Amino acid sequence: MAPSHLSVREMREDEKPLVLEMLKAGVKDTENRVALHALTRPPALLLLAAASSGLRFVLASFALALLLPVFLAVAAMKLGLRAQWGSLPPPGGLGGPWVAVRGSGDVCGVLALAPGSSAGDGARVTRLSVSRWHRRRGVGRRLLAFAESRARAWAGGMGEPRARLVVPVAVAAWGVAGMLEGCGYQAEGSWGCMGYTLVREFSKDL
């Protein structure tokens, strides 16, 4: 499917359940890899070992003492990712959310934007997800191009000194990172836990 067969428009209310399922599916595709990446870092392994050692004095089962901290850490990380990216944000100053639609009317992607936290920060992508059945068919690039056009229009209307778009990407989402780099984005920052990166931020001056 070529990008020319796609259109982007604002999400209709009756499409909200479908879009929510798409966002949740997108999070599920990356949450296990992010959890594996985070929990195999040396500080995380040390904390899990310490927690297991402490639980051995409380629990009768050695296996339970070993597995319980891992289970709780994975569950907490997954809940955090789902709360961050698996729900629809409220409409922001840039409008939306928007959906990518095939010519037949099938919703195949979703995009949401928000202004940066301070003047000059530009716009931020807060949600970007493509249905697993429509990936590698230009949907992500079409949504990204739409996000760039909205960011330019918003910056011009607000009198911003420059138009800029920032896209956060989970550390395990190598395909998305590669797409952004191919579109001229550069990794400029990151955030995570215990000194290890969980999310990288890519930006581009438009």
Automatic annotation (TrEMBL):
Instruction: Enumerate the spans annotated as N-acetyltransferase domain.
Output: 55-206
Q: Where is the signal peptide?
A: none
PROSITE patterns reported for this sequence: GNAT
Cellular localization per UniProt: Membrane
Q: Which organism is it from?
A: Catagonus wagneri (Chacoan peccary)
The primary gene name is NAT14
Task: Reply yes or no: does the keyword Acyltransferase apply.
Answer: yes
What is the protein name stated in its UniProt record?
Probable N-acetyltransferase 14
Predominantly, its location class is membrane
The record's comment on protein family reads: Belongs to the camello family.
